[in-house]
């Protein structure tokens, strides 16, 4: 076709060939008044000149990936995921203080809370910098997702972690993994949108080419700041996930250590309590052995008191002992919140019952553990033969345990506990063993112990104080009591001394109040303290088993008083009963103790009988009788 049929561009006509070229590259030319080039014509066109080409500036707000419906859809889904994660995060936060039904974790709620926080931060970061995708952010998110996947496998593969985290922890780590993968996909979507079919449509790049004429490789200062912030935030999240993976690995390694004794289901089979007993249940005469039930203070019994109890058995101070870990301590599962002293006492009773342990008991407790023992004693008065309290905490001082500042520090420490900021260096640099982390010097770093102390703090000045005050009212007043106090603690705290004195009036039957001058709060850590505790177990508390020996009285007239002089080879005491009713001696209101009366040698005129019944049942003609009963020399006379 001849070009002469076409008008010249200079006369206002358009060039069809140029229009076709513009259409081929996706441009819409507005150059309808083309002039012949001269010395003033640009060699390179100005693409931001609206008079020649209709392209936009790269800084124009209209140049945005949000113009694509797929990008808008992905962002809307991310917003929905963020809202759901925030709701779950709030539930995990609340479960630390009050456990909602069905959301109990037997380990501690801190791991589930940590994974939920990771998911929430990942999604918030994705939303904040949604329009500024970057390769470093995607790489870091991929690493985070891979580490979280390792956590999922580890949590499901190890039976103990699966038992402790339950569905709450498993669901939280799976959700965090999925959200990390979604963040990578969302970031990639902004850069590269896959549509239906085989066509590939570039999101941000395609919009830049369509609106500015070419893809932009440069970034504005604001965009670089956004890329930097997103990379920093996601890198911190990845580091937290790495530390959490290391902590979870330590938990998996600790699971190889089997607990001594057994674990028993309590509280309608919600969690398990660890219980350990050592020694024969019955003696050579077939009588039930009095068991010393140890209750730990600020630390687990296994840390130091366990060794002390073993030595006491070897030294003959006691014949049998048991101890149970409170919920969250050592090998016991964490209990739902809140957890007061009475609740802990109830689950201990359940564990003892399921283990077939019936007592009688001598309760030996230390520090704050004395509060739990006192509540237990008030509810099992007939089975409790005595109380030995080692530098006990008074209920009036529970305000220190429940101080808001202490509670906040425990909560913050619990939130950070999955990172293992102290456990990991201790394991690597100080070579801490699994037993150290379970009940030893590093046990305070575990989430379970921190959660147990936080539970203790939350109800210390309310529910627990109410329980202890009530227990003092209903405590058997004839129960023998021994108090061993730290001299160091008394000198440091004048209020501590007055409260120790008040505890000596817990019942009307104070056996001894000993002050170990150079001993710290953990009295057994000094030789003098250990010897004093064993001395009281041997001299005083051993006499608590007498009421279990002396069977119901009968055949005695009210005016006839039956007297027992008991000698354990160290000291003597007199028990006097003035009742003719068939009741156990320890239940008699007229039972009197006199530690000043010594055993009279001429009181025993003969020996030989092997049963206590021969002393007093229907034989008022017996004036004197003496025999050995379970290591005691008992002389009875009217």
Give an overview of the whole structure:
Keywords: Membrane, Transmembrane, Transmembrane helix. InterPro entries: AB_hydrolase_fold (IPR029058), DUF2417 (IPR019431). The protein is an alpha/beta fold and 638 residues long. It folds into 4 domains: 37 residues, no CATH class; 190 residues; 228 residues, Rossmann fold; 88 residues, no CATH class. It is 45% helix and 12% strand. It contains 20 helices and 15 strands. The strands form 3 sheets. It has an 8-stranded mixed sheet, with helices on both faces. It has a 5-stranded antiparallel sheet with strand order 13-12-11-15-14, with no helix packed on it. Helix 2 packs antiparallel against helix 3, helix 3 packs parallel to helix 5 and helix 9 packs across helix 10. It is elongated. The N terminus is likely disordered.
Count of runs of 4 or more consecutive helical residues: 20
Give the overall shape.
elongated
Structural class: alpha/beta
Alpha-carbon Rg, integer: 39 Å
- Stated plainly, the CATH topology of the largest domain is called Rossmann fold
The tally of beta strands, per DSSP, is 15
Low-confidence regions: 1-32, 194-203, 545-562, 566-632
- End-to-end separation in angstroms reads 146 Å
Major sheet, described briefly?
8 strands, mixed
- Count structural domains: 4
The first-level CATH class name of the largest domain:
Alpha Beta
Q: Could you tell me the strand content as a percent range?
A: 5-15%
**Fraction of residues in helix:** 40-55%
- The overall average pLDDT, rounded, is 78
What is the quaternary state of this protein?
Answer: single chain
InterPro entries: AB_hydrolase_fold, DUF2417
Keywords: Membrane, Transmembrane, Transmembrane helix
Transmembrane segments: 73-98, 110-132, 138-158, 165-185, 224-250
Region (Disordered): 1-42
């Amino acid at each position: 076709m001849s070009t002469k049929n076409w008008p010249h561009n200079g006369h206002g006509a358009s060039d069809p060939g140029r229009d076709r070229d513009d259409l081929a590259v996706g441009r819409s030319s507005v150059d309808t008044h083309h002039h012949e080039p001269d010395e003033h014509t640009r060699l390179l066109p100005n693409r931001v000149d609206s008079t020649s080409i209709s392209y936009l500036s790269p800084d124009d707000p209209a140049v945005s990936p949000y113009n694509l419906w797929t990008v808008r859809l992905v962002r809307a889904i991310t917003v929905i995921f963020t809202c759901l994660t925030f709701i779950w995060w709030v539930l995990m936060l609340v479960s630390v203080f009050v456990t909602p039904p069905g959301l109990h974790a037997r380990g501690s709620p801190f791991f589930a809370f940590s994974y939920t926080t990771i998911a929430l931060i990942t999604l918030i970061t994705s939303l904040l910098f949604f329009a500024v995708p970057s390769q470093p952010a995607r790489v870091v998110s991929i690493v985070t997702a891979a580490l979280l996947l390792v956590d999922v496998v580890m949590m499901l593969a190890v039976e103990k972690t699966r038992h402790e985290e339950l569905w709450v922890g498993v669901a939280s780590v799976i959700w965090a993994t999925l959200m990390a993968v979604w963040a990578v996909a969302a970031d990639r979507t902004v850069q590269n949108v896959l549509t239906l079919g085989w066509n590939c449509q570039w999101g941000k790049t395609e919009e830049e080419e369509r609106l500015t004429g070419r893809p932009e490789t440069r970034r504005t200062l604001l965009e670089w700041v956004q890329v930097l912030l997103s990379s920093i935030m996601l890198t911190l999240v990845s580091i937290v996930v790495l530390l959490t993976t290391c902590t979870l690995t330590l938990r998996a390694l600790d699971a190889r250590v089997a607990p001594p004794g057994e674990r028993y289901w309590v509280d309608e089979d919600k969690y398990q309590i660890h219980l350990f007993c050592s020694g024969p249940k019955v003696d050579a005469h077939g009588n039930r052995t009095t068991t010393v039930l140890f209750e730990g203070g600020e630390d687990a019994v296994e840390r130091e008191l366990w060794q002390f109890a073993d030595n006491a058995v070897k030294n003959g101070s006691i014949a049998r002992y048991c101890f149970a870990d409170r919920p969250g301590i050592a090998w016991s599962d964490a209990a739902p919140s809140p957890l007061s002293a009475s609740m802990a006492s109830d689950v201990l009773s359940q564990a003892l019952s399921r283990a077939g342990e019936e007592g009688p008991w001598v309760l030996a407790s230390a520090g704050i553990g004395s509060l739990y023992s006192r509540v237990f004693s008030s509810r099992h008065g007939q089975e409790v033969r005595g109380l030995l309290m080692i530098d006990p905490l008074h209920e009036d001082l529970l305000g220190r345990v429940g101080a808001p500042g202490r509670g906040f520090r425990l909560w913050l420490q619990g939130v950070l506990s999955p990172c293992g900021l102290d456990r990991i260096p201790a394991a690597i640099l100080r070579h801490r063993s699994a037993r150290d982390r379970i009940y030893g010097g590093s046990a305070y770093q575990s989430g379970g112990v921190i959660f147990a102390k936080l539970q203790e703090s939350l109800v210390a000045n309310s529910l627990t104080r109410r329980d202890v005050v009530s227990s003092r009212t209903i405590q058997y007043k004839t129960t023998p009591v021994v108090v061993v106090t730290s001299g160091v603690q008394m000198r440091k705290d004048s209020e501590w001394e007055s409260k120790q004195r008040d505890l000596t009036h817990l019942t009307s039957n104070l056996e001894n109040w000993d002050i170990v001058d150079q001993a710290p709060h953990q009295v057994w850590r000094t030789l003098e303290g250990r010897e004093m505790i064993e001395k009281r177990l041997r001299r005083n508390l051993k006499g608590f088993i007498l009421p279990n020996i002396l069977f119901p009285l009968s055949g005695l007239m009210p005016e006839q008083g039956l007297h027992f002089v008991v000698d354990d080879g160290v000291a003597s005491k007199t028990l006097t009963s003035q009742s003719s009713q068939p009741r156990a001696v320890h239940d008699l209101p007229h039972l009197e103790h006199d530690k000043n009366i010594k055993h009279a040698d001429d009181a025993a005129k003969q020996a030989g009988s092997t049963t206590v019944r021969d002393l007093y049942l229907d034989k008022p003609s017996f004036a004197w009788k003496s025999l050995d009963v379970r290591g005691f020399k008992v002389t009875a006379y009217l």
